[in-house]
Structures are given as structure tokens and as C-alpha cells.
Amino acid sequence: MAVSQAIPITRHPYADGSYKKMLIDGQWVDAASGKKFETHNPATGELLATVAEGDAEDINRAVAAARRAFEGPWSKVKPFERQNLLLKLADLVEKNFEELSQLDTLDMGAPISRTRGTRLRVLGMLRYYAGQATALHGETIENSLPGEIFSYTLKEPVGVVGAIIPWNSPLTASVWKIGPAIATGCTVVLKPAEEAPLRLAELCMEAGIPPGVVNVVPGYGETAGAALSSHSGVDKVAFTGSHVTGQAIVRASAGNLKRVSLELGGKSPDIVFADADLDAAVPGAAMAVFANSGQICSAGTRLFVEHKIYDEFVGRVAEFGKKLQVGNGLDPNTQIGPLVSAEQMKRVSGYLSIGQQEGAKALTGGTPLTEGALSKGYFVAPTVFANVQDNMRIAQEEIFGPVISAISFKDTDELIARANATTFGLGSGVWTTNVSKAHQVAKSLRAGSVWVNCYQAMDPAVPFGGYKMSGYGRESGKQHLEEYLNVKAVWIKTG
Ligand code: ADP
């Protein structure tokens, strides 16, 4: 395993240790309590920023501002103007993309090649939602009532949206919530896990998005997050994060029966048949887990390999993992960055021990990396566990680290039942050159996305979301917009 050594020094306006305020009603303000929290670079431990720490009182102020905006001038803003605002925001994000990529890397550790690589997706999302803003429409529906009575539907914005996002991809996650809200005419209170979305909020102001339409209140889950999800002035919560927090949010939503959409975790099966193009499947299956150090909800962490090729294939994946360059994400050669925090490092290291205690064999990795240039950050070696059985905890529980659990299977029939034997259902992968088999397996898997001979392909026009405990609702695609809209039926007696 190679370790990145040369780390370019970047002075970033959002990572120079300075104090960042929250955005409420178009104003940059301190927390009402005056509290602040610190964010640190997970590769080096250096202080990035001190951030105003929002809690229930700040959420109250932000929800009130979002409500005023929703019921005020924003409700008169035409679809074409909302489209223009999103296009302006997309242009600003494009202009500042290098700075935004560096910020995501500094903030959560992902390699700069990866954060730069989100460019097309982030810009594509903003421009897709811009296009959708002028494509929203109800329907005229013929009814069978006696006499003359005309019926049609109106699509109306659901109202104030509470958006709660995790730390694993701050820019993408923020755009995924703000984009559809602006397209549909909603207003948003965004509760991020750290400070990175505040830079996007600055760009929202610069684009001319009116005060109160986008508010950003950083803070902790149990205070700011809980206040937002239980707030009676919030009409919908759009959440991305763990299933445990998703369950808390559903409970908190019961007070005013607000609408909820949940994009949660997974334990996704990635299935390799003996007839697959193995030269493509080896890096594909490896990076389906190692990308972003495994901190992706749809990572293909249960690697099912047909028994005929199991030893050879898993050995090759381990060799691939061994060669990956681990280090500071700012180094352009880095392929694997740190985990996001000490807490995450402890959690993943715990699973490395559990896997070994359960009898799995680490063909590569299996340990935290604490030497030399990696000593100040939260690094874990890309790990491939062989001899994994379905009932092991490393085959059942979401680890959120660079850990592959490789499992052997005999034939398609037993495979499907085993691949579906998880409480989750987010992503899944199939590697085969047999088209009929690909279709058959794709149809049988209980997951929101099936990637055949690829992994993690995403597009703003194609829906993404979960089955079972991976949540409900979809992001991207037309269905995403529907999550932010109410349907009203209008009846007009004309006879
Ligand atoms: P992760 O493990 O990815 O951090 P979490 O579900 O813990 O997943 O966090 C995702 C987001 O949910 C974060 O913004 C976090 O602050 C927030 N959060 C955590 N607990 C709660 C809660 N009880 N209510 C609302 N939001 C919460």
C-alpha cells in the first residue's frame, strides 16, 4: 500500500480556522445561545472553522423566516424566475467549483479527484431542477359524475422543508435538497452536519435567491436536528442519514404528521458471476466499496462471488485494494482518504476486530493506519474479508468504512434469497456477460438501484432511493419533485 507524502498546502477561506455564522432570513447571524462548535480536517486534525451552533431557538427563527418567505413574495415568483435563479446558482457553483471541491475534501477527507469528480453531477442536478421548474403541471381529469362538472388538479409546493443531511458528501447532499425545493417553490431550512454547506448558502444569496427561501442552521442532531424534525411549522422533512436517525425522525414527525422522505443506509449486495468480465469486475467491485473510504450509503459491501471463481476473484480484489494510495485527500494521487472522525474510526476499527473474531480472514487490511504521515488522521487500510458467512455481523450491519465482506455462492436461485436477506435495500450490483441473467437478477433484487457491469452510476434524471429499511421517497428524477408538491383537486360545476 502506498502512502501519499506530498501534501499541497491550500489556504481556503472556509478552512482557515475563522468563525462562520449561520444564515437565517438572508442574514448571517450568531446562534441565539452564542454557542459555537469546531470542525477539523480528518486527515490532519487541523482546525478548519468555528461554526455557530444552532439549536431549537435558531430552528424556530429559521422556520419562521422560511414560513414568511413561503407565504410572502416567494409565492408570487413565477416558475420561469425560479428556473433562472437555479441557473444562476449553477453558474456560480461552476465558477467556484474548485474551491467547493477543496472544501468538501478538507471537511470530510474524500480524495480531491473524487470531489472534483462530482462536478458534472452537481451542476447537472441544479440544471435539471431548473428545467423541471417550468415543467410542473396538474392534469385535467374526466370524471363520471352526472351533470356538468369539470375537474382538474393543481400541483402546489408543500411548504417549508426541513432538510437534514449527513457529512459524507456535503455539496451533493445540499444541492439534492435545495434544488427541488427552489424548483417547486418551497422554502428550506437546511441542517447540515458541518460548515461546508454555508459556502453554498453564500452562493444562493449571490444568485439572488430571496431572504428566507434558503436558511442554513448548522448544529447537532439531538438539538437542531430534533427541533427541526419535530417542528409544527415544518411541512416536510427530507432526510439523508442512518436508519436509526430516520426512525427518530419518523417518530418526531408524528406531531403534525409532516411528510417525510428518507434516504438511509444499506448493506448492498454486489454479485459477481463466473462469466463476468473479471478485468472490469475487479476494480468495479473494489471501488464499489473503497470509494469515499466506504462512506457511501449504497456501497456494495456484501460481495457475492460465484464459488468457481471465488478464490481467484477475491484474491485479485485484495491485490487491487493493497495497491491503493492512502493519504491526505488534497494530494491528487490519493485514492483513499481518511474516515471522517475519531468516532467513525472507532466504529470501523471495531468491525475489523469483530470480523476477525467471527472467523473471517482479512486478505488485505484489517487494521487502522497510524504510522508516519497518517498518524494525525483517521485512516483505515482498505480491507477485504474472505470466508464471510451470511449471518456474521460484518455481513449484516452497515460498517461505513472501506471493508468488503466477500461471500461465496453456488447458483442463482440460492443467491437471490441470500442477497435479499438483509433489512436494507438501497443499491445492488451484478457482474455478468449473460444478458438474460442480468435481467433476471435485476428483477429479483429488492433494492432501489441495480447496477449491471458498473456501480454507483447516477444521473439527475434517474430516481435513487431505497426499499425496506433503506427508506422511502426518491431523489433525482421526476418523482423527486413530486415529494415537494401537494396535489389539489379542483371541481367546477359548469352546468
Ligand atoms: P451519520 O452516521 O451519517 O452521521 P446520522 O443519521 O447520525 O448519520 O446523521 C445524519 C444527520 O442527521 C446529521 O445532520 C445529524 O446531525 C442528524 N441527526 C442526528 N440525530 C438526529 C435526530 N435525533 N433528529 C434529527 N436529526 C438528527
CATH topology of the largest domain: Aldehyde Dehydrogenase, Chain A, domain 1
Radius of gyration: 23 Å
Strand pairing plus helix content: what structural class?
Answer: alpha/beta
Helix content: 25-40%
Q: What CATH architecture label of the largest domain applies?
A: 3-Layer(aba) Sandwich
CATH class of the largest domain: Alpha Beta
What's the CATH H-level superfamily name of the largest domain? Answer: Aldehyde Dehydrogenase, Chain A, domain 1
| Count of β-strands | 25
Low-confidence regions: none
Largest sheet: 7 strands, mixed
User: Which small molecules are bound?
Assistant: adenosine-5'-diphosphate
Overall form: globular
Write the SSE topology.
Layout: E1 2-3, E2 19-20, E3 22-24, E4 27-29, E5 36-40, E6 47-52, H1 56-71, H2 79-95, H3 97-108, H4 112-117, H5 119-133, E7 149-157, E8 160-164, H6 170-184, E9 187-191, H7 197-206, E10 214-216, H8 221-230, E11 236-240, H9 243-253, E12 259-263, E13 269-272, H10 278-290, E14 302-306, H11 310-323, E15 325-326, H12 342-357, E16 361-364, E17 368-369, E18 379-380, E19 383-386, H13 393-396, E20 403-409, H14 412-420, E21 429-431, H15 435-444, E22 451-452, E23 464-465, E24 474-475, H16 477-482, E25 485-493
Parallel strand pairs: 1-15, 2-6, 8-9, 8-11, 9-10, 11-12, 13-14, 13-21, 14-20, 19-20, 21-22
Antiparallel strand pairs: 3-4, 5-6, 7-25, 16-19, 17-18, 23-24
